[in-house]
Amino acid sequence: MKLETRIVHAGRAVEPGSHAVTPSITLATTFEREPDGAYAGDVYTRSSNPNRTNWEAALADLEGGAAAFAFASGQAASAAVMQSLSVGDHVILPADLYHGLRYLVKNVLARWTLRADFVDMRDPENVRRAVTPQTKLIWVETPSNPLLQVADIRQIAGIARQAGALCAVDNTWATPVFQRPLELGADIVMHSATKYLGGHSDVLGGALVLNDGAGELVERISVSQKLGGGVPSPFDCWLLLRSVPTLALRVRAQTDSAGKVAAFLASHPRVDVVHYPGLPSHPGHEVAARQMDGFGAMLSFQVRGEQADALSVAAKVQLFTRATSLGGVESLIEHRASVEGPDTQTPANLLRVSVGLEHPDDLIADLEHALSGV
Ligand SMILES: *Cc1c(COP(=O)(O)O)cnc(C)c1O
């Protein structure tokens, strides 16, 4: 069946006892044992819970994976992948990487002797050159945050396979509606479900989906989830599953508008450059068109001038909300360098935009007004 049909039903079934059409929330942390000591199903909610089981089933279905693991945040999910590695292993990560993971790798995992190289993945040859005999993981983020750089998943997954390493892809920005990394050869898909999967800026979540349902990786991730304990609450899982049936509708409408906003910005004299893979002028446009079914609703642009000029545009918007995060129904704008902190590599005149579900004409009018004063 098609994705639109599957996402309405994934992880949902009429409940046997109550005949409820939507799942109820099981808040219980503990479950009764049979007189003989056996458990009929769940034991303890850190290990499993009916709402988490439903949400994980939906995740596996969405990404076409064999196993899915829900976490309390995207960072908890990424950390579990890193915990699956061993002392002395080498990982290759993108130079334009979600800043939270860059800090985790540099500040925490480095102390556990995880060795990491950050390379520009727009050219897969840079990845090939960075491979060492100790390389065990190649982490891809495409389109990347915040520069919307595009990496060729199929090629990089091939390099990983040759090197005997795993390939993980952060698919947060593209969503499985537009990009399915496991079909392109990746081993692991990671999501910050806080973003498009949740879709309403009201729940934090993370996920890992694996192409292999058995084997050592599944075991290691499962242990990190259940014993590390960074799991989402039953209510979080319920909210996240509730958002899944509207995912395709939301991201397609948001992407239509993002294309219009990007075209407007690209033609504006006070904008130096627009980073959006849907623009034919974007260096990653061809690869994105090949591996994605849509270009997504995230973009960034550089205001002509300095940091102060970008900040003054952000100060003047009225419809966009000045806030971090993305993927919700409301449009957000953010001066990215100042939220990333002193270690940032993001240009100081860059603003990142998450396009919501408002009418694109209103969004464009708001930006036009904000840019007119620069
Ligand atoms: C937000 C984000 C993360 C981190 O996820 P959290 O849910 O905030 O922990 C990772 N990768 C990308 C691309 C993100 O946008």
What does it look like?
With 374 residues, the chain is of the alpha/beta class. Helix content is 38%, strand content 16%. The protein has a seven-stranded mixed β-sheet with strand order 1-7-6-5-4-2-3, with helices on both faces. It has a five-stranded mixed β-sheet with strand order 8-9-12-11-10. The longest helix has 20 residues, at 247-266. The chain starts with a helix and ends with a helix. Bound molecules: pyridoxal-5'-phosphate. Pyridoxal-5'-phosphate binds next to helix 3. The site of pyridoxal-5'-phosphate has 15 residues, from helix 3.
Detail the topology: elements first, then pairings.
Blueprint: H1 3-9, H2 50-63, E1 67-71, H3 74-83, E2 90-94, H4 99-108, E3 115-119, H5 124-130, E4 135-141, H6 153-163, E5 166-170, H7 175-178, E6 188-192, E7 206-210, H8 215-228, H9 234-243, H10 247-266, E8 271-275, H11 285-291, E9 298-303, H12 307-316, E10 321-322, E11 332-335, H13 336-340, E12 350-354, H14 360-372
Parallel strand pairs: 2-3, 2-4, 4-5, 5-6, 10-11
Antiparallel strand pairs: 1-7, 6-7, 8-9, 9-12, 11-12
The structure holds pyridoxal-5'-phosphate.
Q: What is the compact description of this entry?
A:
This protein has 14 helices and 12 strands.
